[in-house]
């Protein structure tokens, strides 16, 4: 074995030991990893060169230089010492942790709303106890929240211990993308085979192409800033759209017409009251969003999904009305007695079912549309991103 | 080189106290390592310096009393770079690529503050340790507000660069 090769192998073996113990954020960032290892290698060569000049044999000089570098585990561990401690999660990761909890909370809310809807339908059809549905929803909410909060917290404590920063998490997901996997494979080939150099060139070209795409995206974003797209709700339509549920909500909650109230089914009045509360909240949020829509990205990012969740929460009420057509009032005007309230005739129940099924579908569609808008929202559309 | 507790024979100290002392030494040395690395980088403000040169300088300037293990220097440099205190530039020297480090403008201010803070700290605890510390008051002024070290040889400096205190009057005092 030639001397140069033996020196190279000693250094590579040492660098491999360090590489194995490095934190994941560094290992998943190929460019940074290569740079770290290159710098360490340069240091060993510098150190060995001086030792050689002092009279040590070349191989021995490399061995001594490697020894002076210290323990590979210790070196690797030093790269984990990043971030400012804040409880068990670093200050740098704290906003990402909170964002993860919020997203998880949203998912939990949706799952619970879905389960509750199914339960409500079953209870409505089979005539079970509503208290059970509410209790099941609350206990599901508690258990799922507990599991998710614990899981996310443990994950972020580990990430903090590993020295992750938010940008490392982004890079990680980026590297797992289609191009990332391709780049990773090509780099592996580059290290292993005789086609290495060729593969590396391909990687370089792809990386440059990706950078060009990123710059193009940036230019596009800059051009779009402040000019929000057609699908984003206009402030005036939100404000007007919010006034109606707010007014109806207030009327449904205070139920001001005593004479009319006396004629209605008490169960229907209770449902109306519940609906009213949700309408008031929805109307208020819609008007608030109307005032912020053209200039605040974070407000829109929060209010769209919040409104969607509240809309989904009204579904159990609609479901209850759907399965109880006998409580729904039909108003007729009689010249001698004034308003007359009638129940729906059994032969027309199918029309009633159809209408309420469409109401439920419409509510689900409206909520999905809001989630879709949340996902499409981009900071570039807003002045105050 | 100062021998650290962890390098002592197991019988040298009571075992229970070893970990306490090891932690104490690690904590003190971590801060000092950063400060000394910055001090050396500051000496090469024009051309910049690279890892091996930093360690050689440290060994020479401290009479081989303070030694940072070769491998642990680079994580320190990486951290300083991420914080924007130092910046790096790749140069090919003698056919080999080296990374040269320099203090950034912001980094220089931070370094001066750290330097002043550490000096004043040592001065303040000197009586407790029964040692004498001699500070170059003819050359430097230590901001009374934030301990930033201000070079008196530069007449253009009128305000502390860290806290903004007007130091005109302080400069005239004997």
Total domains of chain A: 3
Low-pLDDT regions of chain B:
none
Give me the Rg of chain A, rounded.
32 Å
Mean pLDDT of chain A: 79
Please state roughly what percent of the residues of chain B sit in beta strands, choosing from under 5%, 5-15%, 15-25%, 25-35%, 35-45% or over 45%: 5-15%
Structural class of chain A: mainly alpha
Give a brief rundown of this model:
The complex is a heterodimer of chains A (385) and B (174). Chain A has 385 residues and is mainly alpha-helical. Chain A is 76% helix and 4% strand.
Describe the 3D structure.
The complex is a heterodimer of chains A (385) and B (174). Chain A contains 16 helices and four strands. With 385 residues, chain A is mainly α. In chain A, the strands form two sheets. Chain A has a two-stranded antiparallel sheet. Chain A has a two-stranded antiparallel ribbon with strand order 3-4. The mean pLDDT of chain A is 79. With 174 residues, chain B is of the alpha+beta class. Chain B has two domains: 1-103, Arc Repressor Mutant, subunit A, CATH 1.10.10.10; 108-174, no CATH class. Chain B has helices at 15-43, 51-61, 70-82, 105-129, 168-172; strands spanning 86-93, 96-103, 140-142, 149-151. The N and C termini of chain B lie far apart (39 Å). The mean pLDDT of chain B is 86. The A-B interface holds A 18, 35-36, 38-40, 42-43, 45-47, 65, 68-72, 74-75, 78-79, 81-82 and B 50-52, 69-76, 78-79, 82, 96-99.
């Amino acid at each position: 074995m030639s001397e140069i090769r033996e020196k190279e192998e000693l250094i590579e073996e040492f660098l491999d030991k360090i590489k194995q113990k490095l934190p994941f954020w560094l290992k998943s960032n190929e460019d940074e990893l290569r740079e770290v290892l290159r710098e360490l290698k340069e240091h060993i060569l510098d150190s060995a060169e001086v030792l050689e000049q002092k009279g040590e044999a070349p191989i021995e000089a490399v061995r001594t230089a490697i020894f002076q570098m210290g323990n590979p585990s210790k070196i690797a561990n030093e790269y984990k010492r990043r971030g400012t401690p804040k409880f068990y999660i670093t200050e740098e990761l704290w906003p990402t942790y909170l964002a993860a909890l919020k997203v998880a909370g949203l998912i939990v809310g949706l799952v619970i709303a879905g389960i509750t809807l199914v339960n409500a339908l079953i209870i409505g059809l089979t005539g079970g106890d509503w208290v059970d549905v509410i209790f099941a929803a609350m206990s599901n909410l508690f258990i799922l929240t507990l599991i998710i909060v614990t899981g996310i917290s443990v994950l972020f404590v580990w990430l903090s211990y590993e020295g992750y920063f938010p940008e490392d998490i982004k890079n990680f997901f980026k590297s797992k993308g289609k191009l990332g996997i391709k780049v990773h494979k090509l780099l592996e080939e580059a290290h292993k085979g005789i086609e290495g150099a060729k593969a590396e060139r391909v990687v370089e070209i792809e990386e440059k192409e990706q950078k060009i795409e990123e710059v193009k995206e940036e230019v596009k974003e800059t051009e779009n800033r402040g000019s929000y797209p057609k699908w984003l709700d206009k402030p005036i339509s939100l404000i007007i759209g919010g006034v109606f549920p707010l007014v109806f909500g207030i009327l449904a909650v205070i139920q001001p017409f005593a004479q009319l109230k006396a004629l209605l089914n008490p169960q229907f009045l209770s449902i109306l009251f519940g609906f009213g509360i949700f309408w008031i909240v929805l109307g208020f949020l819609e008007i608030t969003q109307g005032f912020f829509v053209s200039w605040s990205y974070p407000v829109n990012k929060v209010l769209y999904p919040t409104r969607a969740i509240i809309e989904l929460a009204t579904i159990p009420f609609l479901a209850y009305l759907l399965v109880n057509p006998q409580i729904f009032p039909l108003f007729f005007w009689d010249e001698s007695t004034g308003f007359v309230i009638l129940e729906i005739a059994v032969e027309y129940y199918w029309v009633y079912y159809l209408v309420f099924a469409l109401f439920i579908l419409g509510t689900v569609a409206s909520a999905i549309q809001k989630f879709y808008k949340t996902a499409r929202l981009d900071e570039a559309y807003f002045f105050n991103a | 080189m100062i021998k650290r507790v962890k390098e002592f024979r197991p019988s040298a100290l009571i075992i229970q106290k070893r970990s306490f002392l090891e932690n104490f030494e690690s904590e003190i040395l971590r801060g000092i390592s950063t400060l000394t690395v910055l001090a050396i980088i500051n000496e090469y403000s024009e051309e910049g310096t690279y890892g091996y040169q930093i360690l050689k300088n440290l060994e020479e300037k401290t009479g081989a009393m303070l030694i940072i293990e070769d491998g642990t220097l680079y994580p320190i440099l990486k951290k300083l770079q991420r914080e924007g205190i130092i910046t790096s530039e790749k140069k090919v020297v003698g056919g080999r690529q080296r990374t040269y480090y320099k203090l950034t403008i912001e980094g220089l201010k931070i370094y001066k503050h750290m330097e002043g803070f550490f000096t004043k700290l040592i001065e303040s605890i000197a009586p407790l340790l029964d040692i004498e510390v001699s500070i170059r008051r003819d050359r430097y002024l230590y901001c009374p507000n934030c301990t930033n070290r201000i070079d008196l040889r530069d007449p253009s400096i009128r305000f502390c660069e860290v806290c903004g205190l007007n130091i005109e009057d302080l400069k005239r005092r004997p």
